[in-house]
Amino acid sequence: MADFITIGQIVAPHGVRGDVRIYPDTDFPERFLHMKCVYIDGIQYEIEHASFHKRVVLMKLAGINDRNAAELLLKKELQIPREDLTPLKKGQYYVFDIIGIGVYDLHDHYLGTVTDVLKTGSNDVYVVTDAEGKETLLAAIHEVVKSIDVETKKMVVDPPEWVE
Length: 164
Hints:
Elements (H helix, E strand, L loop, with lengths): L3 E11 L4 E6 L12 E4 L2 E11 L2 E6 L5 H5 L5 E5 L13 H4 L3 E4 L4 E9 L6 E5 L5 E5 L5 E5 L4 E4 L7
Parallel strand pairs: 7-12
Antiparallel strand pairs: 1-2, 1-6, 2-5, 3-4, 4-5, 7-8, 8-9, 9-10, 11-12
């Protein structure tokens, strides 16, 4: 079975012909303009057309032909197979690959697990939670994060001096 990744959520119907408004949940929202299909609850839907309107995507899905059908999709997630993800440059990672990864210092001492990634204006911040539930915030910058191996689920960091 394919591994699906969420790229947006249907937030409202749009008009009376079955179009839907989608809030994109991706760093690559332009993908919606050239996609051929999307999955909702594991069912493939062909995309007839898509366009941007302010901060949402307007989309017409094949087989969804009126407002009532569109309303049945309210709050549903739009997903794509993992293999359809936009390739990243070296040193870039998808958030879902970072969540759950083990974090170790330069001496291979376990510090905790990444439980969240906070988006800030300048750089992401990794929330690392230890076994007692204590959270430590680490800037996702080269001076702090020395290596990430998503295959082995291990991150090596050089935490600032104020981190115990």
